[in-house]
Amino acid sequence: MDTAATASLAQRRLHSVEAAATLIGIGRTATYDEIRLGRLRTVRCGRRRLVPTEWIDEYVELLKREAEAAA
């Protein structure tokens, strides 16, 4: 995904799982695994599963805390 498209995604409030994966920098399957494990929270809008921007930030903070604890 190019930089302009990534910047456009960053301005949205709700992201598809695929877009959230791109923003986080992990694959689609890994993102669904994190959702299944409850580490990345989502909301439902009809049949769609969406990830709010603040929950992406929350997930990144979780990863940072885990990295600090492992060091």
Automatic annotation (TrEMBL):
<dbReference type="GO" id="GO:0003677">
    <property type="term" value="F:DNA binding"/>
</dbReference>
<protein>
    <submittedName>
        <fullName>Excisionase family DNA-binding protein</fullName>
    </submittedName>
</protein>
<keyword id="KW-0238">DNA-binding</keyword>
<dbReference type="InterPro" id="IPR010093">
    <property type="entry name" value="SinI_DNA-bd"/>
</dbReference>
